[in-house]
Each structure stands twice: as structure tokens, then as C-alpha cells.
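C-alpha cells for chain A. Residues wanted.
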């Protein structure tokens, strides 16, 4: 599709520096000198009405007085002057600005009012702004250093995006010393307009960026952030560091799940689901940055270690376990090969201890042998200073082996004085060098985590992951009844009724409002029974001794009933009591008590929690969190991240719990989240599971009447589910039957075959290039869409998996969120059969239903068939004024 809308801002061809100055020590001088020192390749104009020239360059009085509008205005004036500058930019037709000045929202109410005014001006004029209160931006490959940082960035392939200017300058300074550079450096500052989400979208489409470092202090627009992060991570490695790692604990009094799911746990779940890697410390961030600069990713998590000292090798092996790395088991062939290279008393295992008297040839030979082992995904070498082998000789011998392999190799040089030169040699060669075993293992573990996260990213669950609710309408009726009664908490019978609507097994419950009713209910459900207090004012029954278990005979019902009621009245005299719930006492000899919950994060919306249950749930503190919607694989992964997962397997005389039943409950809970936007909190505790199945013994639901309606975009969730509702059987004019449905990640093989099967002309008309195949990154971008700001519909011959794609159409949202840009391609054998018209009609209908106002597209003017199709569908055609080879098609969607 067309050039990215932020290109003029982040890769400008002309820059106006508003507030440029010659005054020593001024911000205006520092920024202008950086731009001059960087060797900016475009047109550079200082703007200052008080000067005729600045540092030898002719100065404009205002942006509006310039002969032509610059691509970007870098604003260095005091905060109070920024609104006037932006008004001047609007008059000149400038649509991009970087505002460095502080003195806005961070200073209090007056500064916030000024910041709000800046935002209003920018929105009205269509000016996209980075900042205010930021360091600025760098684009080293064009010599752009529009910052006041003391150190510029080298050109490289890593994009650095940070909300903190201090982090930006620290990383740039460190990277210069480490010998690697950046494609872009963006300090977002207060983000009055552009935030991390839109900057990431630019990085995704930027050919110069191969990987990304992102530093966050908070997220403003969860859906946009998640959408952008998932899109980037599908084709480019991204490392995220976020500060503020603390639990909120705000809902502790109301919900077990809310108490146990903190903000940081949710953010972890977001990063994992988005296919990114999270760094928790500067050391880890720097270590991962070193590896990203080499553009080498491990195929798996199997680590090989080669060391000339046994102790450091053990240290690395210990850390590997903490980082979820597997110590590789060397093949017999590798052991034999090493045996011919090493002394007889070498370790004969991994870590490979080549002994302290190792020569450079022995070190290099051992590394080569381990690298050639197919069961090794990455290698760490550890060099300990000793008299036999100078560190620089070891580095010189290892570097050729490292360059020749595609596997990541991390060198560690322990000590300082004796190894400094060797470390510098390796870094000068563009390879990662570390000072400690732990830092190298952390870095490789982060990349292995990235590979695991990529598998999670491929999961695209449908809105209904398990099964259609038995009575979905009844769930909404139940919500309405509770809401209209003025309550936000369902009673236990109502909560279990809701679970039943979604197919989650619950024990039979009878409500009793008197002793006589309790005795009759016990006879009906069958002994033994459980008696539980019913009160809208009591969140946790166990806190008031409101549960009686194992009531085995009719005579015991009276005493337990009286004891339960009197105890609750004594402990909570203010509580309203609606009676008791009588349930059969389910006795599972081999049962495990689990907990499944839903909590609502203030930023990312609903999350699903799973872990150990029972009355000691907070004490156990064993739970994991995932973003809905879930698939079977995501549910399995959620279970595996808890300690209690190990107790689900068989041990001694205990049979394994039916894990499929747990997965099914998690999928049905996911269905509840997707289809009930009013569901604020859910506790299923305990969920009793044994080898026969699972049953929810107790449940509690909190509703939110403010989120009563389910919309087509599932806007109450951070991740848009797979829109299965858009799949439809269709018939072409010649009677051919086909299926049109949203694309899925597993369609990648079919999409590649479709593009490679196009004629050169068809391929050129669609992609504006005749390249015969798609790169892996382009293929990921085409098949892994987020269904929120991009939709792709494929036409396949049948609903059978791995069938042939015969046509594709898609749209992508533009930054105004009202306009989308379309593209369509039909296989050569399927042209002139009405397929293009059918696909475009479906795409237009989806865009209209999702609230877009306008659809546009760029069509090569020689593509007469596509121009006729667009015209027949009602598009207005206009030849591009800057490029006559392109025709712009526009369709209003509101009529």
C-alpha cells in the first residue's frame, strides 16, 4: 500500500528548526549543531525572527515565510510560544512537528491547560506531533540528529522508541561505545499526539529497521498498542522494558482474582501474547540489544557451553535453568569429535570444559564441534584469563567460527585488565561480548523466550473457542435482571446459572429460606450435602464461617443450619441474608482444587487467571494470567505456567487429572469474556478436578452495567478475536462454489503459493513490483492481521484446510481511524468470473459495518480492469497529481 503516513516526520527530506540560536549553552544552539554535525542530507533551515543567519545558515523569520513547507518542524521554543509556532506551521502547510520543550502537563494545572491547547491546535490542523518534553528524534542513515543529546547514534538496524529521554540518551551513548547503531531513535515524551503504538506501526513498515527496543512507563490506548505490538512482533524481534512493576491490589476486598492479578502480571501476559520479549533490568535490555544487533535468532532453547574454566561453566548452567534454557545433550558424534580434540580428562559433557591449558586451536575446534551438533541452538563461550593463552589470541581464533555460523554465539570474557582488548576485538567485529556468564545467558534466554512467544502469537482464537452457549440470550436476561435490581454482584445460584449457560459443569443447587426448606432440599439433592449462606453483602463465605460441609444425615441439617445462621448474624449483623444454598457434597477422592477467574485491568481490560484454589488461595499465590480469547494451545500454556500444573499429572497411586476438562473450562470462560462485556469479575473457586472431569463448586460474578452492549469490534477486549462470523459460502457466475473468510496465520503456505502462482503482470499490478516471491516478513504481514485495523478476506475453493487460495482482498485503517485503504488480487485463472467484484463487495460491507467513513486505494493507471471494477462499484477515480502512473480511487461508505 502507499507510503507510511509518518515518513515525512521520521524520515524528512527538509527540516525547519524553530528557535535555532547561536547563544552558547542554549537548547536552540545544541539541536542545530547536532543537525549540522550529523550531516543531515536534506534541506535544513533555521527559523528565528531575531536572527538573519544562524551558524552560517540563512534564517527564516517564520515557517510560513519559507518558500516551500518543510517536511518537519523541530520546535525548540519555550512552552508558552509553542501554540503560536504550531499555528504558523498550520498556515504554512506543515503536517509534522517535534516539540522538545518542557513546561507542559508535568508542571501542573497551568501546564496541562497549555498542553491541551497544543493538542487541539494539532488536531485541527492535522499536524502529527512527537513530544512535548522529549529529547527529539534521530535517523542516522540520513544524518538526522534532531536532539540535544551529547552523543549521536551510529547507523544501524535497531529502532529505539522510549517514553524517557534519559533512557534514549543513555542507550545511544552506550551503543556508540559498543559499536552498534540504530535505524531510528524516537523519544515520545508526553505523547500529546503520537504514542508508542503509531511509532511501532512506522517501524513495522520501515525497511531499515530489523528489530526494536521499546521503553515504556505506561500505555494510553491498549487496543492500538496491542495491535501495533503484535503486528511488529510477527516480522521483527522486539524487546520491551516497562517500569512501574507493582501489584495494584485495589480489588482485594471483592475478588480473589482481582487481588492476585497485579498490573505487572497483566503486562507480562500482554508481552507474551504479543510475541515480544520483556527485559526487566537495564543489564538485560543492553544484553538483548547486543544480540539483536547481530540479527541471529536461535531455532530453539538448547544451549551449548564451551569454557576453559569449570566454575564459570557451572555458573552459566545454573543460570540457564532460571532462564528456561535447556542444557543441550551433545550427540555421540559430537562427544567423539571432541574426544579427538581435547585431553582425556575433559568434561565429556555439556558444559564442555576444554581445561585451563587450552590453546587457541583447541578452543576454536571445540566451538566448531559444538556448533555443528544439530541438537544445539546457541553457544556461549567462556574465557578465563590464564598464562598459556592470551585473550586476544583466543578472540582471533573464535571470530572466524562465529562469523561462519548462523547460530547465535555469545562470548564471555571474565575479568577486566587481561581480557579488555579481546572484548573490544569481538565488539569491533559486530559480535556480542559479555563480562559475566549470567548476562550472556540472560540475553540468549531472552531470544529463546522470543521464539516461544512467536508460537503463542500464531494462535488466533475464534470468538467462541469452546462451544456456543446453551442459551446466550438467557445470559443477557440474567444480567439485565441483576442490573435492574440495583446489584452488581450475583448471588451464588445466579453465578452458577451463568456458568451453566456457557456449559461449565456445576452441582445442583436448591435455595432454602427456612429450616424446613433446607431439610427438604437436602433430601432432594441427596446426602451428604453442603450448606452455604446466601447474602449480597458477603463476598467470601469462609470469612464469616458461612459454609457447612459434609452434612451427612437429616438430623444434622437442623443443627448445622442453626449454627450457620447464628454465626453469620454474630459476625456480620449488618448483612442481608437471603437464605442458604443446598448442594450435594461432591467427594472426589483424587480431586485437585483449582481456581479460574476473570479480572478487569484498567488498561488492558479483561484477563483470565488460573492457578491453585481452595481456602488458601492467597497463601498459595500460585496463578498465571492470560489475555482472552484463548485457544486450546493458549489454555495449555496458561496451565503450564503454574506450579500446580505438576500435580495434575499422575503420581504414586493418584491418577492424572483430566486435563482436557480443565482446558474446556478455560475455553468456556474465554467465551464468557468475549460475549459478555458486562462481566467485570469472576471467581470459580474451587474448580474441583479429578480423572473423571471438572466441576465448579463455588462461583462469584461481579457485573458492570456500564458495559452492557457487545459491539462488532469487541472493543471491551485488548485483542480482537478471529471474526468467524464473516465466513460465508459463495457461488460465482459460472456456478463455482467457494468460501470467503478472514485470513488466518496458518494460511501462510497457501498465500505464498497464491502469490508465486500469479503471472508477472498480475504480481506487478498488485505489489508494484514483479518480484516472484514474498520474504518471510512480508508473508507474515499479509497473513497475520489483527482484525481490528486490518482485515484480509481470502476466497478458497472449499472449507477444507490447506485448500487453494484463488483471491484475496484486504483493507488497512489509516491514522484518522475513519479511512481505510484497500487492495485486491485475483488469481489469473479466476479472473473475469466476477470474483473481484464479489470480494470487493464483501470488503466494503465489512468496512462499513466497522464504522469506516471512506475507502481509498491506489491503482496503477495501466490496470484498466481494476479501474473498471472500482468505477462499477461506485469509486471516484482521480489521477495522482504528483505521479500520473497512479490513479486514486475513493468511495464514501456512509451513503
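Reply:
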Amino acid at each position: 500500500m502507499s507510503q507510511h503516513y509518518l515518513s515525512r516526520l521520521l524520515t524528512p527530506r527538509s527540516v525547519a528548526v524553530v528557535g535555532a540560536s547561536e547563544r552558547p549553552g542554549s537548547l536552540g544552539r545544541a539541536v542545530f549543531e547536532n543537525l549540522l554535525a550529523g550531516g543531515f542530507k536534506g534541506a535544513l533551515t533555521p527559523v528565528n525572527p531575531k536572527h538573519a543567519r544562524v551558524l552560517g545558515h540563512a534564517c527564516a523569520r517564520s515557517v510560513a515565510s519559507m518558500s516551500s513547507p518543510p517536511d518537519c518542524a523541530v520546535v525548540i521554543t519555550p512552552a508558552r510560544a509553542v501554540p503560536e509556532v504550531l499555528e504558523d506551521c498550520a498556515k504554512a502547510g506543515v503536517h509534522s512537528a517535534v516539540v522538545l520543550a518542557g513546561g507542559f502537563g508535568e508542571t501542573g494545572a497551568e501546564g496541562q491547560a497549555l498542553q491541551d491547547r497544543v493538542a487541539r491546535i494539532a488536531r485541527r490542523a492535522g499536524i502529527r506531533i512527537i513530544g512535548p518534553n522529549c529529547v527529539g528524534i534521530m535517523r542516522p542513515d540520513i544524518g538526522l540528529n534532531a536532539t540535544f543529546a551529547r552523543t549521536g547514534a551510529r547507523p544501524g538496524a535497531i529502532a529505539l522508541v522510549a517514553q524517557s529521554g534519559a533512557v534514549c540518551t543513555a542507550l545511544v551513548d552506550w551503543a556508540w561505545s559498543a559499536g552498534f547503531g540504530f535505524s531510528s531513535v524516537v523519544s515520545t515524551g508526553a505523547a500529546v499526539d503520537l504514542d508508542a503504538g503509531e511509532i511501532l506501526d512506522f517501524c513495522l513498515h520501515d525497511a531499515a529497521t530489523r528489530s526494536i527496543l521499546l521503553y515504556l512507563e505506561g500505555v494510553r490506548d491498549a487496543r492500538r498498542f496491542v495491535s501495533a505490538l503484535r503486528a511488529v512482533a510477527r516480522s521483527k524481534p522486539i524487546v520491551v522494558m516497562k517500569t512501574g512493576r507493582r501489584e495494584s491490589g485495589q480489588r482485594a476486598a471483592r475478588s480473589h482474582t482481582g487481588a492476585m492479578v497485579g498490573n505487572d502480571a497483566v503486562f507480562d501476559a500482554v508481552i507474551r501474547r504479543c510475541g515480544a520479549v520483556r527485559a526487566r533490568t537495564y543489564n538485560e535490555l543492553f544484553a538483548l540489544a547486543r544480540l539483536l544487533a547481530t540479527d541471529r535468532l536461535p531455532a530453539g532453547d538448547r544451549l551449548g557451553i564451551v569454557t576453559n574454566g569449570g566454575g564459570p561453566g557451572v555458573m552459566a548452567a545454573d543460570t540457564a535453568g532460571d532462564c528456561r534454557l535447556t542444557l543441550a545433550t551433545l550427540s555421540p558424534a559430537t562427544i567423539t569429535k571432541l574426544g579427538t580434540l581435547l585431553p582425556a580428562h575433559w568434561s565429556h559433557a555439556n558444559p564442555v570444559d576444554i581445561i585451563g591449558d587450552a590453546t587457541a586451536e583447541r578452543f576454536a575446534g571445540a566451538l566448531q564441534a559444538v556448533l555443528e551438533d544439530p541438537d544445539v541452538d546457541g553457544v556461549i563461550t567462556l574465557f578465563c584469563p590464564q598464562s598459556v593463552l592470551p585473550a586476544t589470541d583466543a578472540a582471533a581464533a573464535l571470530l572466524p567460527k562465529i562469523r561462519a555460523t548462523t547460530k547465535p554465539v555469545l562470548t564471555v570474557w571474565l575479568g577486566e585488565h587481561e581480557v579488555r582488548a579481546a572484548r573490544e576485538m569481538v565488539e569491533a567485529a559486530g559480535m556480542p561480548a559479555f563480562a559475566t556468564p549470567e548476562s550472556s545467558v540472560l540475553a540468549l534466554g531472552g531470544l529463546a523466550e522470543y521464539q516461544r512467544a512467536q508460537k503463542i502469537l500464531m494462535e488466533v482464537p475464534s470468538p467462541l473457542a469452546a462451544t456456543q452457549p446453551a442459551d446466550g440470550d438467557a445470559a443477557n436476561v440474567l444480567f439485565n435482571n441483576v442490573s435492574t435490581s440495583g446489584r452488581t454482584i450475583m448471588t451464588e445460584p445466579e453465578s452458577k446459572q451463568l456458568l451453566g449457560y456457557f456449559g461449565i459443569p456445576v452441582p445442583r443447587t436448591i435455595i432454602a429460606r427456612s429450616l424446613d426448606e433446607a431439610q427438604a432440599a437436602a433430601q432432594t439433592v441427596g446426602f451428604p450435602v453442603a450448606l452455604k449462606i446466601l447474602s449480597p453483602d458477603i463476598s467470601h463465605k469462609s470469612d464469616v464461617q458461612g459454609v457447612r460441609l459434609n452434612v451427612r444425615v437429616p438430623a444434622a441439617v437442623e443443627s448445622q443450619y442453626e449454627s450457620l445462621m447464628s454465626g453469620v448474624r454474630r459476625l456480620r449483623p449488618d448483612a442481608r441474608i437471603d437464605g442458604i444454598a443446598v448442594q450435594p457434597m461432591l467427594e472426589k477422592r483424587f480431586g485437585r482444587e483449582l481456581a479460574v477467574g476473570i479480572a478487569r485491568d484498567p488498561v488492558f481490560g479483561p484477563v483470565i487467571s488460573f492457578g491453585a484454589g481452595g481456602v488458601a488461595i492467597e497463601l498459595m499465590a500460585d496463578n498465571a494470567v492470560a489475555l482472552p480469547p484463548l485457544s486450546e494451545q493458549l489454555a495449555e500454556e496458561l496451565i503450564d505456567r503454574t506450579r500446580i500444573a505438576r500435580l495434575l499429572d499422575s503420581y504414586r497411586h493418584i491418577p492424572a487429572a483430566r486435563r482436557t476438562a480443565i482446558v474446556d473450562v478455560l475455553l468456556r470462560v474465554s467465551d464468557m469474556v468475549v460475549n459478555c462485556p458486562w462481566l467485570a469479575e469472576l471467581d470459580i473457586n474451587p474448580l474441583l478436578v479429578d480423572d473423571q472431569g471438572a466441576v465448579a463448586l463455588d462461583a462469584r460474578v461481579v457485573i458492570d452495567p456500564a458495559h452492557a452492549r457487545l459491539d462488532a469490534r469487541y472493543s471491551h477486549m485488548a485483542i480482537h478475536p478471529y471474526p468467524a462470523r464473516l465466513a460465508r459460502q459463495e457461488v460465482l457466475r459460472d456456478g463455482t462454489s467457494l468460501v470467503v473468510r478472514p485470513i488466518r496465520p496458518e494460511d501462510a503456505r497457501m498465500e505464498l503459493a497464491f502469490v508465486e502462482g500469479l503471472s508477472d503482470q498480475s504480481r506487478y499490478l498488485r505489489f508494484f513490483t514483479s518480484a516472484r516471491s514474498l520474504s518471510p516478513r512480508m508473508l507474515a504481514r499479509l497473513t497475520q492481521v489483527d482484525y481490528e485495523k486490518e482485515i484480509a478476506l481470502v476466497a478458497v475453493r472449499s472449507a477444507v484446510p490447506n485448500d487453494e487460495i484463488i483471491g484475496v482482498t484486504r483493507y488497512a485503517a489509516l491514522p484518522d481511524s475513519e479511512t481505510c485503504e484497500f487492495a485486491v488480487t485475483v488469481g489469473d485463472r479466476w479472473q473475469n468470473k466476477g470474483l473481484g467484484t464479489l470480494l470487493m463487495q464483501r470488503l466494503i460491507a465489512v468496512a462499513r459495518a466497522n464504522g469506516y467513513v471512506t475507502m481509498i486505494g491506489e491503482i496503477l493507471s495501466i490496470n484498466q480492469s481494476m479501474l473498471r471494477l472500482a468505477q462499477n462499484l461506485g469509486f471516484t477515480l482521480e489521477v495522482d497529481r504528483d505521479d500520473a502512473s497512479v490513479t486514486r480511487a475513493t468511495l464514501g461508505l456512509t451513503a
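The chain has a mean pLDDT of 88. The first strand starts at residue 14 and ends at 18.
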